[in-house]
Amino acid sequence: MNRKIRSELIQFFSGMVTSEREKLFYMVLQDRTKYITVALEDFYQSHNASAVMRSCDCFGVHDMHIIENGNEYVVNPDIALGSSKWVNIIKYNQLNENTSGCYHELKKNGYRIIATTPHMGSKMLDDFNLPDGKIALVFGTELEGLSVFALENADEHLRIPMFGFTESFNVSVSASIILYKLTSELRKSDINWELTNDEKQEILLQWLRQSVKRSKVLENEFLKKNKAKFRNKK
To answer: Is the pLDDT of residue 234 over 70?
Structure first.
C-alpha cells in the first residue's frame, strides 16, 4: 500500500475511535521496537505462548514468530488479555520442519539468533551484552526445550542464572526476565532501536483496523469510493 492511501485510511479510521485511544496509540508507538524479536518453537501449551505474547506487548516488542512443526498455536484469550491485537504474529507452518524457514527469514532480515537453553555452555544473562545489530530470542517448550537444529544453528546461547534445585523457570517467566533486562538496557543505550516512521504508520493503521468493527468492509467501501482520487498516487 502506498503512503498516500495509508495516510488517508489512517485519517478515515481515526475519526471512528476516541481521541484518547488515538493518543494512546501514538504514545505506545514511541516505545515499540523490532530491534528485539521473539520466536517460539513448536509450543503445545497455548497458555505459555500467550503469556509470552503478553510479555512482548508489555515490554514493547512488536513481532513474535511462531514455529509450528507439530503443534498449532491458538491464542488463549484468558492469558493473552487482548495482546494478540497489538503484537504482530508471524507463523511458520508450511513445511514438516519449519524452524529452518523461520531462521532463514530472521537472518535474511538481519537478526542474530539467540537460543535460550540451560545447556551447551550458554552465556549467563548477566554477562550478555546487546550486540550491534538486531537479535531474535528463541524459546523452546518446557518439556523438550529447543530442537537440535534450533540449538546448533543459533549464533549464541543464553541462560538465566539459577541457584536452586530446579533446572529451569517456566518458559513464560524466562521470557519475561530476559525481555525485561534486554529491553531496559536497549532503551538506555545509544542503539537506534525505534521504529521507522513508515513502520509506525503501518502499525498505527493495523491498530486502528483492530479497533473498528467491520473495518475490512468499511475500508473496501472507502477505497472504492475514492478510487479515482487514489489512481496513480504514489
So the answer is: no
